[in-house]
Amino acid sequence: MDTLAQRLAEYAAGLEFSRLPPAVVHEVKRRVIDSIGCALGAWDAEPCVIARRVVSRYGAARGAALWGTTHRAPPDWAAFANGCLVRYLDFNDTYLSKEPAHPSDNIPPMLAVAEEIGATGRDLIVAIVLGYEIQCRLCDTASLRARGWDHVTYVAFSSALGAARLLRLDTEKTRQAVNIAGVSAGSLRQSRVGELSHWKAATVAHAGRRGVFAALLAGEGMTGPAPIFEGAMGFEKLVSQTPLEAVVLEQGDFMITKTSIKAWPAEYHSQSAITAALRLRPSIEDTEQIESIVVQSHDAAVDIIGSEPEKWRPQSRETADHSLPYIVAAALADGEITDRQFSSARFNDPKLIALVQRVKIERDVELSRRYPEAVANHVIVHLRDGRVLQEQVDYALGHARNPLDDAQLEAKFHALADRRLGAERASAVLQVVWNLDTLADVRTLAETLVLP
């Protein structure tokens, strides 16, 4: 039977390093650098510490390293702990389509499996490309959040396929990995609604863990329910509610080249609003001069980060970095968006919260029409002296059409990693990743990440 699971399995089993253009290999290295930087930046975050504490109870003779430590855990557990680190700051890369995604969420599960088996750098690169290819093409095909499911649901499939490729499973076992991953793939959108919790970062790590576990089971002969997508009670009927036959594969450029790297640690739909606010900041001597702020935005931004009452009074870092009114107000008040703006002291500051109350979010038909090709925001600041300042940004720094160059990417990495590793050791990590395609064993990379 020609099912989607079968087609995905055939593609995964057949993808080889020789088919990857040099530009795609380079983009993989850039995403690994970015992900490791984000992970080191989140080292002390409470949910990441909790995940590391739990996973540290379980060891493995080979296994995969908990980044920053010498402890080796079963690969699915390592995928979870490391995945929490990559996602926590909401600073890792983004892909926007019918469903938004952070496809670098595939990197921790891929690296965990690669370490478990002592894979080469080239094998890891292929698996990462595969994760991006599958997740992004699924996002192109059907929205999940519109139906109450979270975008991380797709990561269960992409991570299972990448893990199966690393394990060199044949097509039939790879298909079973997809079946096993899919039957419990659904993640509720409640993880990103209202006041957000620790689980915002952990939910995708959990999806990656499930994908790895599915591939390990399939590798030993475990079978899963089929057809997982097209079945009477399958994914298309109950979750996507849309046929997914249009998915796949290599329809033009590899999908990793269409993803965007963030310049600021906040939800992606706010990136152009941050840019606009920072451009306006020098013209505002004192935020007390601000009478009101209007942010004209596209539907996705309004729905995800600009409509719920909690966004005007965030009570957690997770809510603050997903609040368009808070992020714009903080950028205007502080002239920056860094980790500092998402500290509890800052998002509880009465003066800043008073400014947030003066922010109004409006849907804009034209900006919505241009989404996701452009992720634009138009910020209008009305001052008490009658002046009106405004700025519109279509492609924020880091967008696929306005990318960070390698030097800017390295600067972002050092800003996150140096405080943990020191500048010299952080530079050594960069050297290893830039030469990822030459590594005989990817465990070399994990060894460079051990904190002093």
From TrEMBL:
Domain of life of the source: Bacteria
SUPFAM superfamilies, per the entry: 2-methylcitrate dehydratase PrpD
The EC number(s) this enzyme carries: 4.2.1.79
Residue stretches making up the MmgE/PrpD N-terminal domain: 6-242
Domain MmgE/PrpD C-terminal: start-end pairs: 264-435
InterPro entries: MmgE/PrpD_sf, MmgE/PrpD_sf_1, MmgE/PrpD_sf_2, MmgE_PrpD, MmgE_PrpD_C, MmgE_PrpD_N
Record carries keyword Lyase: yes
Keywords: Lyase
Keyword DNA repair (UniProt): no
GO molecular function: 2-methylcitrate dehydratase activity
PANTHER family referenced in this protein's UniProt entry, alphabetically: 2-METHYLCITRATE DEHYDRATASE, 2-METHYLCITRATE DEHYDRATASE-RELATED
Family: Belongs to the PrpD family.
Protein name, entry field: 2-methylcitrate dehydratase
Native organism taxonomy: Bacteria, Pseudomonadati, Verrucomicrobiota, Spartobacteria, Chthoniobacterales
